Amino acid sequence: MWSCLVMTFFVACQQAEVENSKAEELPMSISASINNQGENSKSRYAGNDPSDVYFVQDDAIGLFIDDKQATEWIFDGVYWSLADNGIVYWPDKTNPHTFRAFYPYTSATSYKEVPMPSLVNQTGTMDGLGAYDFLVATSEQTYSTGGLVHFDGDDTSFRHVSTLLHLSFQKGSELNDLTIHKITLEGNDIVSPSTYSFAYDDKEAKVTLDSDNAVNVLTVDQTSLSEKSASFYLIVNASQEETPVVALTVEYETNGKTYSAHSDNIVQTGLVGGMYQKYTITVLNSSLVIDGTKILPWGVGESLDDIEINGEENTESE
To answer: Are the C-beta atoms of residues 171 and 288 closer than 8 Å to each other?
Structure first.
């Protein structure tokens, strides 16, 4: 009889422990946006404004919780949820935990080495530019937030890691038409494979370029026609050199003749991560004049000196 009572008590204790354990399970949820210089952001690009960037349905981010492997979270247009409708629980209710998130999602096993998107197959159009963008966010929180992991404050929103170049070609008043056939950018590691390491311990966040497999040339071989203008949007690696050199070659056609113009270096202030750098280039028959430039943190910028690019007529027979 005593053994039955002891067994009954043991089972009851087990059941109580299970119930208490379930009561302590703390489901996790996510709130995320993309930082736009402190403004409310709404990773897709809308219209012709590269500062208008926001998450859309089916976007997927990776989330490292402390030292654990990344989990995949998918946006349904309103809420973020774990892939395959799973559930992630907070480790505990009282201690602070570090959350490191990145977009787009890859099956990264460590926050110290996250592969960044390949930059070599860009078309230069705004459509699809989000596939080459790489965004990161870090937040340290406790469960006191009600289980919600916030990535939507001024300091915790997602931010851009690479550099966005916008080449805007304008037609001079004396030209009847303008066709940009090809643009080529050349610079050290401009689109080389790269990985991102989040900050940890006393180490700062950094991008590591795979210089052993360096890709120094980015070419967009796509005809762009417009009555007044033609724009190219390209994401490149932020430079780790103090004074990087990025050469530009443009092949274009106007008034029935084809030209090739070249500048040894168009990036006067470097390539800084998270910056939007715009060049407004006016085509004046056989020359190009960069007459309006500014650098923006994908949000407020500064002016640069004008750059003139002289074009030479292509006389080779076709």
So the answer is: no
pLDDT at 289: 73
Say how far apart CA 87 and CA 26 lie, in whole Å: 10
Give dist(CA 34, CA 136) in Å, integer: 9
Provide the token pair at 141: 């929180």
The whole-angstrom separation of Cα 158 and Cα 136 is 5
Percent pLDDT > 70 in the chain is 77
**Residue pLDDT, tens place only, 15-41:** 444 333 433 578 888 888 776 543 433
Tokens at residue 88, please?
């992630």
Q: Which pTM value belongs to this model?
A: 0.82
The whole-angstrom separation of Cα 208 and Cα 238 is 11
pLDDT tens digits for range 133-162:
999 999 999 998 788 898 887 788 888 999
Query: Distances from the Cα of 105 to the Cαs of 61, 66, 71, 127, 184, in angstroms?
Result: 5, 17, 9, 19, 29
Please answer whether residues 187 and 247 qualify as being in contact, where contact means their C-beta atoms are separated by less than 8 angstroms.
yes
pLDDT in tens, 258-308: 888 888 888 877 888 888 888 888 877 777 676 655 555 564 333 343 545
